[in-house]
Design a protein that fits this description.
By secondary structure, the chain is of the alpha/beta class. The chain has one domain: Transcription Regulator spoIIAA. 43% of the residues lie in helices and 24% in strands. It contains five helices and seven strands; from the N terminus they run E-E-E-H-E-E-H-E-H-H-E-H. Helix 1 packs parallel to helix 2. The longest helix has 16 residues. It is globular, with a radius of gyration of 13 Å. The two termini are 22 Å apart.
Length: 120
């Protein structure tokens, strides 16, 4: 799979787990968050992405629209029988995730390895 068509993510496979790295350091504005959402939805909708890890290690700021995008990706994945895990959230992003309850709809891991192992 080529990741050249993506602006906000880099995707690869680790075994049977699709790992998506979110690239922007900040997702402040709705248009940028919506573009990210389109890219994540495209990956999450693929048959080979039934197990999906979203790594947010580069992202230091995530707007409410960005969090809404993550919720939507989890819901869409769940609706089609797929599983989404998150990992490597910056402490400030993790605080926001905890406040809005992202950990109630998906599991958040400290490391990418732990997230991948949880899907084994």
């Amino acid at each position: 799979m080529s990741t050249g068509e993506f602006q906000h993510i880099k995707a690869n496979m680790v075994g049977d787990v699709a790992v998506v790295e979110v690239l922007p350091g900040e997702l402040r504005f709705p248009p940028q968050a919506q573009e990210l959402g389109s890219e994540l939805t495209l990956v999450a909708g693929q048959e080979w992405a039934k197990k999906l890890v979203i790594n947010l290690k580069h992202t230091k700021y995530l707007s409410s629209t960005g969090f809404a995008v993550l919720f939507r990706v989890v819901k869409q994945a769940n609706d089609r029988g797929a599983t989404v895990r998150f990992c490597e959230l910056d402490p400030e992003v993790r605080l926001g995730a905890d406040i809005i309850g992202l950990d109630k709809v998906s599991t958040i891991f400290e490391t990418e390895e732990e997230a991948i192992q949880s899907l084994a």
